[in-house]
Write a structure and sequence with these properties.
about 525 residues, alpha/beta, Leucine-rich repeat, LRR (right-handed beta-alpha superhelix), Cytidine Deaminase, domain 2, 4 domains, 8-stranded mixed β-sheet, 6-stranded mixed β-sheet, 13 helices, 18 strands
Length: about 525
């Protein structure tokens, strides 16, 4: 979902428990930050958790913003202009992203007010001297890194590690900075700056394409390559020969990522290699939350399988005996035959073929189908109907309901934490408990006698108003019944009087006739 002005206008905006104005953009699969200028810098916190961001860039001037929540994205690049865009940033949460190099964190050093930083779940945490580099890069403003407080002793040791007595960078600091230049992470447009051309950064396109996940992201990438290589993992469940793919995640490629690929063959030495450490880490993270999910295979973008795919398939044999290959061909010019009438997806199972006394890996196509759940069908039907033409009142009530639900969920979490603390199931955090006590103390007292009297009076007034309304309605119905009874009775009386008149007139006339 693109971050359009309409999406921003419909997003929840509320006062969070820290009394900050927060903009909630969680779980929309947003691929890039854009159009934030329409918010007019009215928020202290912006929550981008669980989206598809690949770069922390393109932020407008947000002087009020001091907290960015960016967990569970795909961020691998931080724009150097972040301090210009958000100069008052104090808290950044980058948990479970794809930052790989220490030097990629250097733009964070330009944030003069940064105090809290979280990088858990990033490949960069496995680098040597990770904590020391971040502490030295962010200078004295950073207080807490990955939920661990930074001590003055650490700051002094970090300075001695990266700065010589003459105030010059050490060889270690120089090597770390050079590592970033060898692995480009992305291009950033700075207003008023010099234009940057893609040709000025060799290998930029291949490196960015290797981290993409879907055809939509590929189309968004501005590249001149005919076939950028895209790869990711498939996870799900397997029952016998039936495989159900539930989720996917992208994979990191190593080796020569600038090697050309003509769609038919590529040398194994020149081709990219799977980062098995990253694959294992991300797979274990998914299994810790969803134990039933297993690694089933991999996906890529290509018209037909080639020798390159056969070589890559062998790298997955350590995770499953028969890794499934899912191929996506989103462009019509590359789709063939019946693919033009169906979804451009092909599924293959690797098999061993013996030819000329030599074995090789070949792919046998297997059948597949799209299986949707009840929730997905309801969502698609609702979208197809255009949202049911709801009015402003319905939209407002839905927004209020969502806000109340979120408030209720957070209150339940706080109550559970307090209960676990009392039962010694959770460690006591006095700072959190003091904050909870202050929050409760700030709420108006609801058990005073004045409040109870006022509440009883208001309750009685509401009940009396309801009773009078019912009484008025009953009197109106009774009045209608009486009017109808009078009308019916009146018609009967008029009919009886008419018959008597005709009899009286007949008597005299008959007498007159007889007399003649």
């Amino acid at each position: 979902m693109k971050l359009t002005p309409e999406v921003l206008a419909a997003a929840q905006s509320y006062i969070n428990p820290l009394k900050d104005r927060e903009l909630n953009l969680r779980g929309h699969k947003i691929p890039a930050i854009e159009n934030l200028g329409v918010t007019h810098d009215q928020h202290d916190t912006i929550d981008f958790t669980d989206n598809a961001l690949t770069s922390l860039s393109n932020l407008p001037r947000l002087h009020r913003l001091h907290t960015l929540l960016l967990a569970s994205n795909r961020i691998s690049h931080i724009a150097p202009s972040i301090a210009t865009s958000a100069p008052r940033l104090r808290t950044i949460v980058l948990t479970n992203n794809l930052i790989t190099e220490l030097a990629d964190l250097k733009p964070l050093g330009t944030l003069k007010h940064l105090e809290f930083l979280t990088l858990l779940g990033n490949p960069v945490r496995e680098k040597k001297n990770y904590r020391e580099w971040v502490i030295w890069t962010c200078a004295s403003s950073l207080r807490v890194l990955d939920f661990q407080r930074i001590k003055d002793k650490e700051r002094k040791s970090c300075k001695a590690l990266f700065v010589t007595a003459e105030g010059l960078p050490t060889a270690l600091a120089t090597s770390i900075e050079e590592a970033a230049s060898a692995q480009p992470t992305g291009l950033t447009f700075t207003p008023g700056g010099e234009d940057i051309k893609a040709d000025d950064r060799p290998g930029q396109k291949a490196g960015a394409a290797g981290r993409l996940m879907t055809a939509e992201e590929r189309a968004r990438l501005q590249t001149d390559q005919e076939a950028p290589f895209i790869i990711g993992a498939l996870i799900g469940t397997q029952t016998g020969r039936d495989i159900e793919i539930v989720n996917t995640f992208e994979l990191v490629l190593r080796g020569d990522q600038n090697a050309t690929y003509d769609g038919s063959a590529l040398s194994a030495d020149a081709g990219p290699k799977i980062d098995h450490d990253f694959l294992t880490t991300r797979r274990d993270q998914y299994k810790s939350v969803f134990p039933a999910l297993e690694f089933l295979g991999w996906y890529t973008y290509a018209p037909v399988p080639s020798q390159l795919h056969a070589d890559l398939s062998e790298q997955f044999n350590t995770y499953t005996s028969s890794p499934l290959l899912l191929m996506l061909t989103p462009t019509p010019k590359e789709a063939q035959g019946s693919q033009l009438e169906t979804l451009p997806i092909l599924a293959f199972e690797p098999t061993i073929e013996i030819k000329d006394r030599k074995s090789r890996t070949v792919f046998a196509e297997v059948s597949w189908r799209i299986q949707t759940g009840e929730a997905e069908r309801i969502a698609v039907d609702w979208t197809a109907r255009g949202g049911g033409g709801e009015d402003d009142l319905t939209s407002h009530l839905q927004t209020q309901r969502a806000a109340y639900k979120m408030l209720h969920d957070r209150i339940v979490v706080l109550v559970q934490y307090v209960a676990d603390t009392l039962d010694s199931k959770a460690p006591k955090n006095h700072e959190v408990l003091r904050a909870l006590a202050a929050l409760v103390a700030s709420l108006p007292a609801s058990e005073s006698s004045a409040f109870r009297d006022e509440f009883s009076t208001e309750y009685a007034d509401v009940q009396l108003t309801t009773y009078l309304s019912s009484l008025t309605k009953t009197a109106s119905v009774l009045n209608d019944i009486v009017d109808k009874h009078i009308l019916i009775a009146g018609r009967g009386d008029e009919a009886g009087r008419g018959s008597r008149r005709r009899g009286m007139m007949g008597g005299p006339m008959g007498s007159l006739t007889g007399m003649e």
